[in-house]
Design a protein that fits this description.
Strand order of the largest sheet: 1-2-3-4-5
Order of helices and strands: HEEEHEE
CATH topology: Trna Endonuclease, Chain: A, domain 1
Number of strands: 5
Number of domains: 1
Distance between the termini: 41 Å
Radius of gyration: 15 Å
Structural class: alpha+beta
Strand content: 35-45%
Largest sheet: 5 strands, mixed
């Protein structure tokens, strides 16, 4: 199959969806109630939105995937991405159902082998806070 920009973009999107499947299953395994996946708030997007059963916190999770390579996928959660997630949290907290909830920003990094099979998952709770934006 030819390696065109469109083909590469489709492979990246497929890899991202697969990593989100793995991350969602991980959160559910921890008892999280997953409220939304790929939640759009205007131009902002939250990969996974869940409630942590231990403390009732609203958890905004950024999922990063990497197939091969030496760099940890979680390192790609840069300042701009943190700002977007913080803004998304502020918008969510304006909703009556989320007022007075603690908010947490987690990152789940999924390392995939060349076939797309997950070979490593790192869940980083409290990867940053609202002051990091």
């Amino acid at each position: 199959m030819p390696t065109t920009p469109a083909h590469l973009a489709a492979l990246r999107a497929q890899r991202g969806r697969h990593a989100e499947d793995v991350a969602e299953a991980h959160l559910r395994g921890l008892g999280h109630e997953v409220l939304a996946r790929n939640l759009r708030l205007g131009h902002l997007e939250v990969d996974l939105l869940s409630l942590d059963p231990r403390d009732g916190a609203l958890v905004l999770t950024e999922v990063k995937a990497r197939a091969g390579g030496r760099h940890a996928p979680e390192l790609r959660v840069d300042r701009a991405k943190r700002r977007h997630l913080i803004l998304a949290a502020r918008l969510l907290l304006q909703r009556a159902s989320f007022r007075r909830r603690a908010v947490r920003f987690d990152v789940i990094a999924v390392q995939l082998d060349p076939t797309g099979k997950p070979i490593d998952l790192r869940h980083i709770p409290r990867a940053f806070d609202a002051n990091d934006g």
